[in-house]
Amino acid sequence: MTSAVETRGVRRVYRGRAALDGVDLEVPIGETIGILGRNGAGKTTLVETIAGLRKPTSGSVRVLGLDPVRDRARVRSILGVQLQDALLHFSLTVAENMRLHRSFHRHGADPDELIHQLGLDDVRQTRTENLSGGQRQRLSVGAALVGRPRVVILDELTTGLDPDGRRGIWRVIEDLRAEGVTILLVSHSMDEVERLCERLIVLDSGRIVAEGSPEDVRRHAGAEDLEEAFLTLSAQAREAEERA
Ligand code: ATP
Q: How much distance in Å is there from the Cα of 87 to the middle of ligand 1?
């Protein structure tokens, strides 16, 4: 059976330095996978390469069997992407932005229902440029989901959200999981990945340095909890870097 996402030996080099250094990743359909790593580890480069927004220097990427660069139009219709620099139109209102993103897809969710689920009812007629950071973040999640994608990439899903907003968005993601949507979640929040993800990968210097269920990653690092595991793995990676 085709995987939702498959990368083979993906490298991406910037000015002689590898941001991704041979990433092999297979994400089965319906899995929610968390992508962790220190600042600069290569997380955004990886998900943007999977989304077809960056071309790998070498290696291959497939999304539901399609090449995201060559089959861009088809991949766009099945993939929802919420990135740190969201593709929102600042002069449009919340409702207009959601309708615009809905119009890119033949089938999709009801924009008003999603606005409601994301807690944006009070600002639906507000221009995007006048939203708070957290409201803009919620809208970028909405824009990624309104086309009812089969695979979703979420980069720092709840950064800047208040506790209520975090819970609300987590519920939206749990509903997607229940529908069998495949989710790639880049996060610095250990409670978030622990709650939402079946499997994690930890990237460091463009390589996968740990992989498994949250429990596997914790045990692999010999740590009490996931946060300690993350700190241990980061320290090990730093030491390896200094030795090299
Ligand atoms: P963060 O947690 O800070 O968001 P990240 O894990 O997402 O970090 P990336 O943004 O993927 O990290 O960056 C990985 C490395 O690649 C960094 O060293 C960064 O400086 C470098 N890099 C990323 N994009 C470019 C670019 N367009 N040109 C040059 N270098 C880049």
A: 19
